[in-house]
Amino acid sequence: MRTLRELVTFISGSPQFRIQESLATNAPRYVYYGQSDLMDDLMSMRSIQVDSKEVRTKDEVHTLSYGNVVFSLITGQATIVRRAHDGYLYTQNYIKLLPTSTIDAGFLVYLLNEDKSIRKQFFIGLQGSQVLKYTLQQLKEIRIEELPPLDKQQQIGELYLKQLHLTALKNRVAELEKIVCLANLAEAGRR
């Protein structure tokens, strides 16, 4: 059994309170990566657009790239960054995880989000806490069972992410059907 620190390099996000906003028009502009972005990436679809917070700064900040694995210290969820969020600034509420060649990114997301043993370890680590927030140290110490072969990991990770996307699509269809039905009922009530 290994710990996650043996399989992953961790890069903490930029402390938001230390970022000095610049009024200079030549200062780079960044969009903050938030929880709705993480959920969009996890479901592989865009939710109803939420106004994303932006900042112009000349400070050196941490950004995400397409294909990165990111973990939320707030919700304990992981995802793979999609192209739509390439270059987004991530704060101290998120950790970028760079897997070694022995673990597939999609499989890592599956493990962190769904594995019962890992969920139990997280739960035990949160007991007694006033604020339910995960820590980098807690993440590093997660114990991982023996990994399947890389090709099996890739299959599991790909199937997991496709299933999340399919579920999100079905939920969206159901929501749209409900809207149409309610509009039809309202129209019938006016006749």
The assigned CATH architecture is Alpha-Beta Complex
> Total strand count, please?
8
Strand order in the largest sheet: 2-7-5-6
Estimated share of beta-strand residues: 5-15%
**N-to-C order of helices and strands:** EEEHEEEEHHHEH
Label the structural class: alpha+beta
Q: Give the CATH H-level superfamily.
A: DNA methylase specificity domains
The mean pLDDT is 90
The parts where pLDDT drops under 50 for at least 5 residues are none
> N-to-C terminal Cα separation, in Å?
68 Å
Query: How many distinct helices?
Result: 5
Largest sheet: 4 strands, antiparallel
CATH topology group: Adenine-n6-DNA-methyltransferase TaqI, Chain A, domain 2
Quickly count the domains. Answer: 1
Spatial shape = globular
How would you explain this protein's 3D organization?
The protein is of the alpha+beta class and 191 residues long. The chain has five helices and eight strands, in the order βββαββββαααβα. It is globular.
Key features of this structure:
Adenine-n6-DNA-methyltransferase TaqI, Chain A, domain 2; two-stranded antiparallel ribbon; 40% helix; 191 residues; alpha+beta; four-stranded antiparallel β-sheet; globular; single chain; 5 helices
Tell me briefly what this model is.
The protein has 191 residues and is of the alpha+beta class. It is built from 5 helices and 8 strands; from the N terminus they run βββαββββαααβα.
Chart the SSEs and their pairings.
Layout: E1 2-3, E2 8-12, E3 29-31, H1 35-43, E4 54-56, E5 69-72, E6 78-80, E7 94-99, H2 105-114, H3 116-126, H4 136-140, E8 143-144, H5 150-190
Antiparallel strand pairs: 1-8, 2-7, 3-4, 5-6, 5-7
Helix pairs in contact: 2-5
